[in-house]
């Protein structure tokens, strides 16, 4: 261990489920006390990544690569005993579904007390007092009485609070929250997320937050990792990524946000066009056309290329329409004979379709983008997605 080691360092993580490569070479760090959000559409590999860190992959899934806790403890492929020593103590999960994390046959307080007792030697009385205090810390009123209730006697929001209390009770260094609020109604979602963020701050833990909710990312995360088809397309500080996305996919995700959260789009400008995407205050929002690819049939090159306005723009067939070609041919007859296009240039034009983009560092290394054409992204990239409105 070296003091400069990040809390978690993931390198070239690959996860296969049977013949399907669901996570295909993912690298990222989580620093002390930070909130890293992992975002992306359904099927991007977010949950599998989160679960690999906790040794909780579904049956039939295999992980390769590396995920080291503080540079020393390897999590990928670790044995059960290794995880048993880490769960709750150093890493903890806040799952989507609180019922899956709580036993239906024991009172909530007993389960919290057992979690305390699994990590340190304490008297039953002390463990129980810690359990009641933990429920109080997550805003459950009358915690002494509630501690004696069973999970089914709690509302959904209260159960999720109890699960957060459980994850935090032994003050782990890393908390992984996998869509921690999707099962809740929007009002409760906000409160539960605020609570998670507050408890993270109070305990000083780092948090990996897997979410679809970009508004929550903007509000609660320090850095974000955008995934598409099992790879990272972009990562960096949240405010910088929101202010200036570099990958077209990130730009598309942000373009579909309400205008107050999407700085890439001027708030007052009504958008013309056909009905697609969401609507805010009578205005349609841009969206990314199409759907994510089937992982078993990934195209060669960039997986986002078939949906990417920049890649489409670069396709030789779409570079010029037939009418434009005729016009060009006429002009060419009048002009000096042009140099024939270099085969290398043509190949370069098609690289989105043929060459997998590797993550590259931008600037001081805080930002990474995996896109052949990131430098071609316009200043207001949301406009690229207007055709989908
Ligand atoms: N238990 C499973 N059995 C078979 N395939 C799975 C299983 N879990 C995940 N997969 C495959 O791995 C891909 C990535 O799944 P993962 O749950 O990590 O995506 P995600 O980004 O978290 O999506 P969501 O936002 O919908 O939860 C899925 O599209 C699916 O093909």
From TrEMBL:
List, alphabetically, the InterPro entries matched. AAA+_ATPase (IPR003593), ABC_Ni/Peptide_Import (IPR050388), ABC_transporter-like_ATP-bd (IPR003439), ABC_transporter-like_CS (IPR017871), Oligopep_ABC_C (IPR013563), P-loop_NTPase (IPR027417)
- Quote any Pfam family the record assigns: ABC_tran
Q: How does this chain sit within the bilayer?
A: Peripheral membrane protein
Q: Which residue intervals are annotated with compositional bias (Basic and acidic residues) in the record?
A: 349-368
Give me the ranges of the annotated region Disordered: 338-368
Q: Where is it localised? A: Cell membrane
Q: What SUPFAM superfamilies does its record include? A: P-loop containing nucleoside triphosphate hydrolases
| Name of the protein | ABC transporter ATP-binding protein
Q: Which organism is it from?
A: Streptomyces himalayensis subsp. aureolus
């Amino acid at each position: 261990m070296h003091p400069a080691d990040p809390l978690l360092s993931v390198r070239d993580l690959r996860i296969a489920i049977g013949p399907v490569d669901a996570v295909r070479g993912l690298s990222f760090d989580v620093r002390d006390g930070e909130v890293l959000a992992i975002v992306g559409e359904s099927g991007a590999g977010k949950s599998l990544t989160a679960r690999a860190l906790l040794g909780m992959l579904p049956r039939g899934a295999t992980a390769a690569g590396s995920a080291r806790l503080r540079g020393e403890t390897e999590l990928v492929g670790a044995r059960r005993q290794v995880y048993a020593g880490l769960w709750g103590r150093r890493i903890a999960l806040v799952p989507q579904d609180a019922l899956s994390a709580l036993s239906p046959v024991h009172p909530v307080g007993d389960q919290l007390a057992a979690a305390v007792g699994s990590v340190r030697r304490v008297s039953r009385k002390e463990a129980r007092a810690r359990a009641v205090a933990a429920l109080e810390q997550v805003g459950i009123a009358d915690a002494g009485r509630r501690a004696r209730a069973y999970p089914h006697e709690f509302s959904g929001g209260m159960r999720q609070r109890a699960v957060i209390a459980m994850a935090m009770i032994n003050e782990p260094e890393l908390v992984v929250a996998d869509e921690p609020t999707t099962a809740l109604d929007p009002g409760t979602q906000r409160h539960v997320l605020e609570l998670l963020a507050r408890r993270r701050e109070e305990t000083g833990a780092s948090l990996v937050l897997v979410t679809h909710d970009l508004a929550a990312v903007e509000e609660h995360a320090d850095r974000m990792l955008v995934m598409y088809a099992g790879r990272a397309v972009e990562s960096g500080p949240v405010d910088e990524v929101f202010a200036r996305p570099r990958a077209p996919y990130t730009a598309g995700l942000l373009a579909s946000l309400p205008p107050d959260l999407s700085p890439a789009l001027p708030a007052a400008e009504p958008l013309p066009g056909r009905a697609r995407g969401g609507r805010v205050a009578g205005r349609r929002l841009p969206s990314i056309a199409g759907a994510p690819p089937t992982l078993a049939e990934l195209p060669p090159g960039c997986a986002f290329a078939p949906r990417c306005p920049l890649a489409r723009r670069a396709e030789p067939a779409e570079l010029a329409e037939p009418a434009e070609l005729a016009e060009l041919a006429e002009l060419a007859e009048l002009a000096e004979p042009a140099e024939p296009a270099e085969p290398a240039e043509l190949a370069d034009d098609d690289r989105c379709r043929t060459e997998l983009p590797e993550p590259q560092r931008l600037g001081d290394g805080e930002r990474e983008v995996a896109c052949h054409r990131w430098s071609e992204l316009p200043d207001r990239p949301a406009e690229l997605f207007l055709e989908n409105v």
